Amino acid sequence: MAGRRVVVFPTSVELGPVLAHLVTSRAEQAVNSRGRFTLGLSGGSLVTMLAKELLAVPGLDCSKWVVGFCDERVVPFDNPDSTYGLYKSHLFSKINIPDDAILAIDFSLGVSECAEDYSGKLRKAFPDDDIPVFDLLLLGMGPDGHTCSLFPEHPLLEESQKIVAPISDSPKPPPERVTMTFPVVNAARCATFVSTGGSKAPVLKEVLEGREGPPFPAARVHPTNGELLWLIDEPAAAALTMKVERLGSGAKL
Q1: Residues 83 and 72: beta-carbon distance below 8 Å
Q2: Which helix (DSSP H) or strand (DSSP E) does residue 41 occupy?
Q3: At 136, is the secondary structure helix, strand, or coil?
Q4: DSSP string, 103-114
Q5: How many of the other CB atoms lie within 10 Å of CB of 134?
Q6: What sequence ranges are listed for the domain Glucosamine/galactosamine-6-phosphate isomerase (predicted)?
Q7: Which residues contact 61 (CB under 8 A, 6 or more apart)?
Q8: Which domain holds residue 80?
Q9: Whole-number pLDDT of residue 10
């Protein structure tokens, strides 16, 4: 597949600093060429990894960043399930990103209204794009092959009109969420998966090397005009037979 790189690190310890360098280097490029850097974040273990590594970057300047969320749970921000809440406490409160540059949901709304409201915020933030084009999306993958809140065999996999969709029957709790759809994910200039741990190995093999039957949601991420990166550790890569790149600490993408 053109434009896909699969990069394997010994452990997540070596992966983390390389991810931080990817973010900051793409930020610098975007600010220099377009005046701002647009970043889409996912939750899970990515929160603590990003916070640790970005806060270790000397002179980190986030004043021209605009941050959105690939998906979000419709819960109050002080709920431990809130991705925004976790990033707020671990990262946003410690960097110089403007509050109005963080595109957060309105959790007081019903799930459908919440998705419409968030869609409106994205459109306002990307007034020149029919579909928002993020400079970098950081994605995760569940052991079932889902990404964002796009789950296997769910009707939202075929959504082509909405840029943000509600989901009220998530197979993974909490059930009510809003999620970017594939048109937005695949419009990104760069989509980067971060996948670590041996529990991901079986599904990662099927996502990257193919499977019988419908592809997993994570396998449907193919940026139309952008890059696709997979940053994984050796335990997650254990079942792969394909050719991959292997990098250690201090590497740069």
Answers
A1: yes
A2: strand 37-41
A3: strand
A4: ----TTS-HHHH
A5: 29
A6: 14-230
A7: 96
A8: 21-143
A9: 96
**Contacts with 80 (C-beta within 8 Å, 6 or more apart), sequence order:** 86
- What's the CATH code of the domain at 48? 3.40.50.1360
So what's the pLDDT on residue 248?
A: 80
Paired with 227 in beta bridges are 190
At residue 78's C-alpha, the angle toward residues 76 and 79, to 5°, is 70
Residue 1: predicted pLDDT: 42
User: Has residue 110 been placed in a domain?
Assistant: yes
Please name which of 245, 221, 30 lies closest in space to residue 136, comparing C-alpha atoms.
30
Structurally, how many domains does the chain consist of?
Answer: 1
Specify the 3-state DSSP secondary structure of 158. Answer: helix
Which helix (H) or strand (E) segment holds residue 18: the answer is helix 12-34
42: in domain: yes
Q: Which of 153, 138, 168, 135 is nearest to 230 (CA)?
A: 138
User: Are the C-beta atoms of 141 and 119 separated by less than 8 Å?
Assistant: no
Angle between helices 46-55 and 12-34 (to 10 degrees): 70
- Is 153 part of a structural domain of the chain? no
| Predicted pLDDT of residue 250 | 76
In 3D space, the residue among 119, 110, 28, 143 whose CA is nearest the CA of residue 69 turns out to be 119
Strands 164-167 and 227-233: unpaired
Q: Running along the chain, 253 residues long, what does each successive block of 10 average in pLDDT?
A: 84 95 97 98 96 96 98 98 97 97 98 98 97 98 96 96 97 96 98 96 96 93 96 97 88 82
235 occurs within a structural domain: no
Q: Which pair of structure tokens corresponds to residue 141?
A: 């993958």
